[in-house]
Design a protein that fits this description.
10-stranded antiparallel sheet, single chain, 378 residues, alpha+beta, Anthranilate synthase
Length: 378
């Protein structure tokens, strides 16, 4: 599972699981925090130093929060229905086993069918134009627009999803699975990390081909830099809701890093965590991530719900590891999911007034191409 402690991964064993769907009702963030506390992972005060790691107790937990659940926590509309049959929140608590599990048997034959897109390139471009019109009216400053595709499959999807974790730059590479569903992640983006009492987020905004010319073009692009700084400001505001007064800072701005065949611009924003802050408070403040919603966040969520024909499912949410004294959640870009009969992928980009519709369609295709190729490999 993404971001699990490297020294523990081979000895982790599931101890307890909780999944949430909208029909279950209640506040999923509060219920997740309560479930974790009941199973040995107390996260009601993230500023409290972690106790010494107990090898006989709970190690920590994998946590998944969908984009729709994040929108609900933020007070926005959840958007269109999830195209994949997945929970919207999942928590899996792990302990240790003295005997590492036996290696999995070789996977059976794997077949992946043709991709069926949720919208045409023309419809995607029209959505970009609709966002530009909303920006022109002053409704929003930026909106992230995401498309979806699905393909039928035969065989076990988990090995194919696990291959995503080997893609270059997959900081949150790994899988999480349940009964009838699985998620595979190749995300390079940190939604929120907590270590040594400090919160960190690393928003990514700005993409070009991973060539020398592409890098130079990204660094010189006033449009990409303006879009990026807008999201950095949004993330600063999100962290300020969780931080000790005066501790929010931008540690790095517009650093260019590589993911597969793309250059991407990344910044680092950090803050000292406030006393008494719990996991539920943290999730309400940072979900869904600003780099995949837009600014202002709630107005952007309204546009997303109006424009995207299917839900974001496992993408544009959060996936990672939580434990006392340590949280590391990746933003689920470059992510795929499988349900009973289909594999699903999503990709998109941030739209500003200067966005070119055809270029935005091409950028989304470039982002999803390595994921699709990896899933199709035999």
């Amino acid at each position: 599972m993404p971001a699990a402690p490297a020294g523990c991964r081979r000895t982790l064993v599931e101890r307890a699981r909780w999944e949430w769907r909208p029909a279950d009702g209640g506040d999923p963030a509060a219920r997740a925090e309560e479930f974790l506390a009941a199973h040995g992972v107390p996260l009601h005060d993230l500023a409290r130093p972690a106790a010494r790691h107990d090898p006989t107790g709970a190690c920590g937990a994998a946590l998944y929060v969908s984009a729709a659940a994040g929108a609900l926590l933020a007070g926005g509309p959840p958007g269109a229905a999830n195209p994949a049959d997945l929970p919207e929140v999942a928590v899996v608590v792990y302990g240790h086993t003295p005997t590492p599990p036996a290696p999995a048997p070789p996977p059976a034959g794997w077949w992946l069918g043709d991709w069926a897109e949720s919208w045409t390139p023309g419809q995607h471009a029209d959505a970009v134009r609709a966002v530009r019109a909303a920006i022109g009216r002053g409704d929003v400053y930026q909106v992230n627009v995401v498309g979806h595709a699905a393909a039928r499959y035969a065989g076990d999807p988990l090995p194919a999803l696990a291959r995503l974790g080997a893609l270059p730059g997959a900081r949150y590479g790994g899988t999480l699975a349940g009964a009838g569903w699985a998620i595979g992640c190749a995300s390079p983006e940190t939604l929120v990390e907590l270590a040594d009492g400090r919160l960190v987020t690393r928003p990514i905004k700005g993409t070009r081909p991973a060539t020398a010319a592409g890098r130079a073009e990204l660094l010189a692009s006033a449009k990409e830099r303006a879009e990026h700084v807008m999201i950095v400001d949004l993330e600063r505001n999100d962290l300020a809701r969780l931080a000790r007064t005066g501790t929010v800072r931008v540690d790095e701005l517009f650093a260019v890093r590589r993911w597969c065949d793309l250059w991407q611009a990344e910044s680092t924003v950090s803050a000292a965590v406030a006393d008494g802050l719990g996991l539920a408070d943290l999730l309400r403040a940072v979900c869904p991530g600003g780099s995949v919603t837009g600014a202002p966040k709630l107005a952007a969520l309204d546009r997303i719900a109006a424009l995207e024909p299917v839900g974001r499912g496992a993408s544009m949410g959060a996936l990672g590891w939580v434990a006392p004294g340590r949280i590391d959640l990746g933003l689920t870009i470059r992510t795929a999911a499988a349900d009973g009969d289909r594999v699903h992928v999503w990709a998109g980009g941030g739209i500003t007034w200067d966005s070119d519709p055809d270029a935005e369609v091409a950028e989304a295709a470039a982002k999803t191409a390595p994921v699709r190729a990896t899933l199709a490999a035999r």
